[in-house]
Design a protein that fits this description.
The protein has helices at about 25-35, 50-60, 85-100, 135-150, 180-190, 200-205, 225-240, 260-265, 280-285, 320-325, 340-345, 375-385, and strands at about 20, 40-45, 65, 80, 105, 120-125, 125-130, 165-170, 190-195, 210-215, 245-250, 270-275, 300-305, 330, 355-360, 370-375, 390-395. The protein is an alpha/beta fold. About 35% of the residues are buried.
Length: about 400
């Protein structure tokens, strides 16, 4: 029994070199995007192409020859891809490639070509490629696992410690899977982590034992680490030569005092990187089945901090304007004063029967949803014993359900 020969995995420098893609469907669309990124001079030969490929041609990223393949189309090519839905055409392309000693991928029959496209992934300047002798799902699965391992820091691709400094990482609304790829990667390299209570707590447990974790929690209406002290800790550890991750819930610049921490680092000469996060203002309603916008229903969103009452001299919110608008109001940190905010909106023009949705502990295992109206929101919140953290969505979108 003959043994199938192994394929030789190699990286091609196609920058400035002619590549011909015969076929204009979904396979071509996927391959052409990568070829453009490599700097190749790409020509697509096909009577028809997908809208995306046509857009690339219109933007002059590629050349599109709108006709069927003809012998001679591979003249001057360094690489070719045959990806039409006609096996006879793909055979003809492959045959011409053989005559010109041009490596050719047969999308319809991999072993029949002289090259195979590996499952590839990118990570921080690395390209990971996997071949599985034609088992495409297997190669794609392994590729994805390797890239995710690199992103999560399970596989450490760096032999050096990160340079001293601070990374201000938005951890998302609580579910550890909703942190960004970059945020998780930087967290995996941290030497010191200054963590919020609302950050993705499960990720803290995955840190190596030598990582110092500092609890910077702020308990609503309870004890809290002063912001000034948090700023000092970030600066002190960074100046001591450590890489510090400030892990915050949600997005650091959405009511997270993140810019205050950036300013403190800048004043001390500490380099700081900001990694945005998914804000709970939108994520919590989404996972509760509530869109904050919907065509024909809401064309505006206002996200409001509820940490001070409407009549508080410190309030910067125009409650009269919010009462007049018809779109969506999202209240954060508003549990203590839900009834007060509802009354002010009604007094300034919002209908009392405007739907309200309260999402408590959004994206976590104990998430729950409470529905009310502006007229009943304060009473319902008390009866249901709603507690922070909770997001309050006010407006017609709060009354939508699937199928409406």
């Amino acid at each position: 029994m003959s043994r199938a020969h192994e394929q030789y995995l190699v990286g091609l420098d196609l920058a400035g070199r002619r590549v011909v893609v015969v076929g204009g469907g979904q396979v071509a669309q996927r391959r052409v995007a990568k070829l453009i990124a490599s700097g190749a001079v790409v020509e697509v030969v096909s009577p028809e192409v997908t809208p995306a490929v046509e857009g690339m041609a219109a933007a002059r990223e590629i050349t599109w020859t709108p006709r069927r393949y003809a012998d001679g189309d591979l003249t001057g090519a360094w690489y070719a891809i045959a990806c039409t839905d006609d096996p006879d055409v793909n055979v003809a392309v492959s045959s011409e490639a053989d005559r010109h000693r041009v490596f050719c991928v047969r999308a319809d029959d991999g072993p029949a070509g002289t090259a195979v496209t590996p499952a590839t992934g990118e990570f921080d300047g690395l390209t990971v490629g996997v071949l599985a002798r034609g088992a495409h799902r297997r190669s794609a699965s392994v590729r994805t696992a390797l890239v995710e391992a690199l992103q999560a820091g399970v596989v450490d691709d760096s032999a050096e410690d990160p340079p001293p400094g601070v990374a201000l990482v938005g951890g998302g609304p609580g579910d550890p899977e909703l942190i960004t790829v970059r945020g998780r990667r930087l967290l995996s390299r941290a030497q010191v982590v200054v963590a919020d209570r609302l950050g993705p707590r499960d990720l803290i447990d995955e840190l190596p034992p030598d990582v110092e974790v500092i609890d910077a929690s702020k308990i609503p209406y309870g004890r809290a680490m002063a912001q000034q002290r948090i700023n000092e800790l970030l600066v002190e550890h960074a100046l001591a030569g450590r890489f510090v991750v400030r892990l915050k819930g949600g997005d650091p610049f959405v009511y997270g005092r993140g810019f205050e921490e950036v300013q403190a680092c800048a004043e001390a000469g500490v380099p700081v990187t900001v990694v945005p996060g998914i804000t709970s203002a939108f994520a919590a309603p989404a996972l509760a089945g509530v869109p904050v916008t919907h065509r024909g229903v809401a064309h505006e969103i206002v996200v409001v901090s509820g940490h001070v009452a409407p009549d508080d001299p410190r309030s910067l919110t125009d409650w009269e304007a919010l009462g007049r608008m018809s779109g969506t109001v999202v209240l954060m940190m508003a549990v203590e004063r839900i009834g007060v905010f509802a009354d002010v909106l009604v007094a300034n023009g919002r209908p009392a029967d405007t739907p309200v949705v309260i999402v408590q502990d959004g994206t976590t295992r104990i998430q729950r949803t409470v529905r009310a109206t502006l007229a009943t929101a304060g009473r319902v919140a008390k009866e249901e014993e709603v507690s922070p953290p909770a997001i309050v969505v006010i407006g017609p979108v709060a009354g939508l359900t699937a199928g409406t």
